[in-house]
Amino acid sequence: MENLLEIKNLTVEYHTQGEIVRAVNGLSLSLRQGESLGLVGETGAGKTTTALSILQLVADPPGKIMGGEIFFEGVDLLKTKKSLLRSVRGNKISMIFQDPMTSLNPVYSVGFQIAEVIRLHESCSQEEARRKAGEMLEMVGIPKERYDEYPHQFSGGMKQRVVIAMSVACSPRIILADEPTTALDVTIQAQVLELMNDLKEKLQTSMLLITHDLGVVAQVCDRVAIMYSGEIVEQGTIPEVFDHPAHPYTIGLFGSIPTLSMSSTKLTPIDGQMPDPTELPAGCSFSPRCPYARAECHKEKPGITRIPGEETHELRCFALGWELPDEALMEVIKRGR
Amino acid sequence: MYKFILKRLFMLIPVLLGVSFIVFTIMSLTPGDPVQLYLGDNYSQEAHDQISEELGLNDPFLIRYAKYIFNALQGDLGNTYSTKRPVTTEIFARFPATVRLAGAALFFAIAVGMPLGIVSAVKQYSLTDNASMLVALLGVSMPNFWLGIMLILLLAANLGIFPASGDVGFKSLVLPAITLSANSLATITRMTRSSMLEIIRQDYIRTARAKGLRESVVVFRHALRNAMIPIITSAGLQFGFALGGAVLVETVFSWPGIGRLLVDAIKLKDTPLVLGLVLVMAVSFTVINLVIDILYAFFDPRVKAQYK
To answer: How much is the ipTM here?
Structure first.
């Protein structure tokens, strides 16, 4: 199937007070029609910056997209005209932001904010937009009588529903969901995820789901990409990556999930910290924390390789083909799930 | 909302009582003999005693205050000592000119200051930003009597575009209004800039951009309305001060406003006139505050929800 969205070699930097923060470093990613891709990584890995770059919403200053290409429907969004980009934003590609408490404008009614995007892209009358915005509210489970109410009259979960209604109002082809459930409590999280799954099926939309929650990925996504320090270190289908994690970072991630079946008093973290994005290591950026790192890892950056025998499973690591010594760790991971 | 407005209007009563009491006290504590002013230079002791009795100056302090309030409630603020005409007549002969001047200055300050502030915020650190911050710096630091004199020199005396003084139609309003607005223009520019700078970094502005809205719609529809609260606060306060009369500007331009009237009244210890003027200022300040509060509710539904 053809790729709906294709990111090639994206590089984004933040220039602050004499320092250059390398947030995204030559990232390549693709998304197919109707597919959900989970983008997983810890805080500061560059997930949000990647999503913002697609719509060029990275705050500038300090953010700068230094290079790369983002193809959508055959057009490089990074080089296209402003007006075309505007007609893509909110219409063909829309975004759900992380914090519902702050992503709605406090001085306009929620109905108005949904109707605004409809009126903008579908050139319909005010009444038509109002009617459709009301339908959108109903679709996400908010009675349309609350159309004229303001964000401060809604709870966090309700606000996120409004944001979702806003992002699907124009039936976009791609939804970029930036940690849509992080700011919500667990029961509301489940509701919102279910809602997003439903909408995705109904509308046949592709989704880029940014999260640091592997459980959410397993529940919602078809494919997963693991991001570390502005790069994708491993990607593949859910079974490929979840059943045979190959990158030491991914293995560590799975290993750090506490389990119910095993009684343990301590968590199993990955040792060390993510490298300072202003001073990335010369070789593989995970090498300073990697338990398997060899001399070459510290000197050279590994390229992307397809894992033999698997269809889409890709890896950015020299360790492919090495005998990874820690069988015990793998056991923990397997039993953990 | 109506209940809120009514409640606030009722609060005028204690405010006016307090203000009048304080001013009344101060005026009676200051040295000087009002009767002397009333009678002019040559008078006999009998005449002095008679006028003293007539003006009620021999009564105890509290009785005098009570009498004043009693009359004021019936709309009688007494006669001035200097012209012997009713205080209300004197004030309302001058107040419209003050309102016109303050209104024109406010209009000019908003019409110029807000756009400058918005451009500065949207294009932070640009040439426009630096230029308008320079304008703002000049505006607050230039003494306005000096600015007035310079404007008269240039635009009235040399180029003859505007009249140099007096209140003779629209043209004569321009120079004093610009002079009076310099300060508030600077404040409004800075206020707009800082308020907008804060708002355009908010998440919901990013949301608005993500919808595909034009940058101008993002700025004016989504950012500006959120940034309005500090702007109207400072604009309202400046307007309130201007309504209290602008002594320096009025003096430079011979503008017949209440600022000069008040200064003269204080110098002559014309108690009824001073009291009347202070009461008018207190009322206008309170009303402006109320208008500001109503505007808050207009711009921000969260504030409106509190006015119940």
So the answer is: 0.85
Chain A: closest CA distance from residue B72 (Å): 44
Q: Tell me which chain A residues have a C-beta less than 8 angstroms from the C-beta of B224.
A: none
Q: Give the three-class secondary structure for A66.
A: strand
Residue B234's CB is within 10 A of a number of other CB atoms, namely: 19
Pairing of strands A75-76, A63-72: antiparallel
Residue B297, class by beta-carbon neighbours within 10 Å (0-12 exposed, 13-18 middle, 19+ buried)?
middle
Is A315 part of the contact surface with chain B (CB cutoff 8 Å)? no
* Eight-class DSSP state of A89: B
pLDDT in tens, A41-80: 888 888 899 999 999 998 877 888 888 899 998 889 888 8
Give the closest-approach CA distance of B227 to chain A in angstroms: 11
The domain spans of chain A are: 3-221, 246-336
- Model pTM? 0.83
Contact A104 B207 (CB under 8 A): yes
Phi and psi (nearest 5°) for A108?
Answer: -120, 150
By Cβ distance, the residue of B203, B225, B226 closest to A103 is B203
Domain membership flag for residue B13: no
Residue A80, amino acid? T
| Residue B47 region by backbone torsions, left for phi larger than 0, else alpha for psi between -120 and 50, else beta | alpha
pLDDT tens across A99-154, in order? 888 999 999 999 999 999 999 998 888 899 999 999 989 888 899 899 999 999 99
Written as six digits, the tokens of B90 are 């004197």
- Whether A91 contacts chain B with CB within 8 A: yes
Residue B78 lies in a domain: no
Full domain range(s) for residue B113: 98-306
User: Which residues of B fall within a CB distance of 8 Å from A57?
Assistant: 206, 209-210
In a domain, residue B42? The reply is no
Note whether B201 contacts A59, CB cutoff 8 Å.
Answer: yes
Q: Is A54 on the interface with B (CB under 8 A)?
A: no
Residue B74 forms part of a structural domain: no
The letter for the amino acid at B215 is E
Name which CATH class applies to A3-221: alpha beta
Test B226 with A104 for CB contact under 8 angstroms: no
For chain B, the domain total comes to: 1
Backbone angles phi, psi at A6, to 5 degrees: -135, 120
Q: Note whether A88 contacts B: Cβ–Cβ < 8 A.
A: yes
Spatial contact of A200 and A37, defined as CB atoms under 8 Å apart: no
Name the closest residue on chain B to residue A114, using Cα atoms: B211
